[in-house]
Amino acid sequence: MNIEFNKNEDLNKNLLFQLNKKLLQVKLGGGEKRIAKEHEKGKLTARERIEYLIDSDSEFLEVGALAADNMYQEEGGCPSAGVVTGMGYVNGRMCMIVANDATVKAGAWFPMTAKKNLRAQEIAMENRLPIIYLVDSAGVFLPMQNEIFPDKEHFGRQFRNNAKMSSMGIIQVAAIMGSCVAGGAYLPIMSDEAMIVDKTGSIFLAGSYLVKAAIGESVDNETLGGATTHCEISGVTDNKYDSDQECLDAIRKIFDKIGAAEKAGFDRSEPKKPSKDEKELYGTFPSDRVKPYDMVEIIERLVDNSEFEEYKKDYGKTLLCGTARIDGWAIGIVANQRKIVKNKKGEMQMGGVIYSDSADKAARFIMNCNQRKIPLVFIQDVSGFMVGSKAEHGGIIKDGAKMVNAMANSVVPKFTIVVGNSYGAGNYAMCGKAYDPRLIYSWPTAQMAVMSGASAAKTLLQIKVASLKKTGKEITPEDEKSLLDEITAKYNEELSPYYAAARLWVDGVIDPLDTRKVISMGIEAANHAPITERFNVGVIQT
């Protein structure tokens, strides 16, 4: 056991080392030279602005740190999609912060930048959190304008969200701390209050070059749209400040005087640490993704006092359902059990697979949590639903549909942590991204795809070989092996949690020890949004 524990710990700590190395690189944005150039202009970087703005010694939960990871390589890359987003505290008030990173392509908007901004706004809207925009962007990245400009979930959607949030009573404060051009100019001006930094901040629908080309007028950018112009002549911005720091101080003063938010009323008691050592997660979680393990051991290292009260413990054993607390917050947990279990009929059931009885149990438990106003936490290590004639005759689709229905219609906030596998319809039933989890994060051990790498590669190989044979090509065993290796390598890259995080299928990849922080801050955010909708599953398969 100790040998296995040490092996797991070594591998998981190596994965964590790789994660931290990647995050350190991401946090440099466009690199040290670009950071130095911002400092020469008297400006802070996006991350320095956030650090200055939020309360000292408070938590900041970054959302989408790995967005666009390894994407846009032909354009020189776009670390963190050129924008930093996350939840933090300003004068004790939790809020969403969105800060353009001018060290990355002058803060220009790539397709993933738009997706990340919209995700930040979505979190603010769902949780009714105030949102702060620290604007410093050259606007749309023109070579890719066709992928960012016209569609429903493209650049323009953020201004629609500005208007919707305003009508919902969600506070929006913007600071123009660098360039703010073209359509992007609407974002700060559609906010409740727009401030600007003198000499470095500017805002206009068209810059001096475009004005010259369009109407023949010669004018410099400062006269066209600088702080003096907009604070003293046009009235577009509200107040100007001499430095980034003064501007950020002014935002803090705004947040010092905001009235209290309504609460959803989720139950919280005094936070307690798990009684089992959290650091043992590294050794408890298996390095071999096929090996069975007891998910209860993982849960007990995440929840307060290591107390987990199971629901229907002896029924539907491949899904664990039960209540616990994390950082004092009451939660309902739905987690995949990875042990091989035996039901009362004497049948063996594979860990990580959802059977009819476990889906039936989970559906009922989810309904109970909605009835009792308990937020739901899904811990994913799922291979999918059981297949085969026995499962089909037993109504697996019907029972799976019941679970999906109860989960999809939940009115309590949902949070998802992908610790291992997240395959196929199992991803859906366990509240994958398509089912509106308030937050979804993965561990470095996560894998996400329609099926496992081995199964997919063999299936894709059969299709490829059949296609080649149709064209009259003879395929030798060596050719097959070469094709299988090529397909497996590509598929395994797409299984990676970094591939998922780059595309915002998950909000980030985290150290397992940060799981409690993610869930606690997530529920605290959700507690700002009273539940107004009645739980209703509609027509449910029985």
Automatic annotation (TrEMBL):
Q: Which domain of life is it from?
A: Bacteria
Where in the numbering of this chain does the CoA carboxyltransferase N-terminal domain appear? 12-270
Q: Where is the CoA carboxyltransferase C-terminal domain?
A: 270-533
Sorted keywords for this record are: Membrane, Transmembrane, Transmembrane helix
* Family annotation (PROSITE patterns): COA_CT_CTER, COA_CT_NTER
| UniProt xrefs under InterPro entries | AcCoA_carboxyl_beta (IPR034733), ClpP/crotonase-like_dom_sf (IPR029045), COA_CT_C (IPR011763), COA_CT_N (IPR011762), MCCB/AccD1-like (IPR045190)
Pfam families per the record?
Answer: Carboxyl_trans
Tell me the SUPFAM superfamilies matching this sequence: ClpP/crotonase
Question: Which residues are listed as membrane-spanning?
Answer: 167-189
Name used for this protein in its record: Acyl-CoA carboxylase subunit beta
